Amino acid sequence: MTNKWNRSEIKQRQKYVMERLKTENLSEKEKELLESSLLSYYNMLNMGISKSKYYIKNIVDKISHNKLKLQEENKYDALAHKLLFEQNNYLDEDYLQFLLDLANNIAKNIPEDISFKTINVSNKDLIETSKNFYKSLGDSNIYDKALMILDNPQRLYILNNKIPLMYETSGININDYVFAEAYCLAVKNNNLMDYQALNHEVMHGIDFYSNKKLYSENYYGFHEVPTYMIDYLFIDYLEKQGFDKNEIQKLKEQKDNYLQKLARFTLNEIRIDMLRNKDDLKKDKSLTAQNVKKTLSNESLKQLLEIESGVISFGLYYQFKQNKDIGLSHLKKFMQSNISPNERPNFEKYGLSDEVLLSLSKEIGIYSNNVNYNIETKDTLNNKSR
Ligand SMILES: [Zn+2]
Predict the structure, then answer these.
(1) Considering Cα of 136, then 141, then 145, then 151, what sign does the dihedral take?
(2) Domain assignment of residue 247, yes or no
């Protein structure tokens, strides 16, 4: 059986949810569940699944200079914006300054993209490697959830060769809140990165099966914590399995570079948005929270939170390396909990206070150097997590 989402099943569910949405007196929460699923179905049914369909749409877009952007598309853009960005997560100057400090500690100019050696990768290899990895963690809770995706070809879509998607991606995870199902998509490029990409999307699924986090009940922006932690562990696992050392080293560098690039890129974007703001004639254009908050876009904020997520995941990874049980129990607790949108996110209960995160952020980049982690922070991490 090929690994492919079942379009007719998705269409059926879409129909069902559309009908349910017509019901009167839906509670806010019920409505949010339904709308979240509806958005997921729309995304799944319209995402680079049929090559010809994509091209046709694209040509139409080009001829009409986007005027013909389908009404339907606009509707779903608005819905996505409503669900993701109109929740008003707590953000004060203090927290924003902390996020900027983290980004500043990490930001680096990374020159070139890493290119991987082409190898033959079969779907079976990808799935088996990921299965063995999740088994090796030694936690049946996580493993069982991994199998719900890895053993179900209709939940794990493996695309052979890159086809033009809406945007460049190596994978995506889409969740159905109503039917409590995680759908993963991994794009196969025939190199070692394919293994990591698929394994990463499966982890998003495990996270969803641990707790369906509703946008209104959860601080938006920390969904990469479990996946980024698992990326580190997975790369280490591949190394132990004897995969090509050179290629493993590239995965490690890519892992470090990504966060460094994201931090640099995000700070640049924030600066550009500040300079563009003509209403603000103040001369002080330094990147302080007070200056930044006036022009901070949702996208930049989301990226700042992703940077914090990267640092948290690095901390969890090191906890795991020091003490597997503590690392795993923090990871599971993280996946099961909501992060309240009404207060400043605080990860002290995972041994990761702001202070620890700031000191960890200065260490981002050492993973690919294969050096031992600095002992001072390591001790802080261990003491705090007890
Ligand atoms: Zn991800």
Answers:
(1) positive
(2) yes
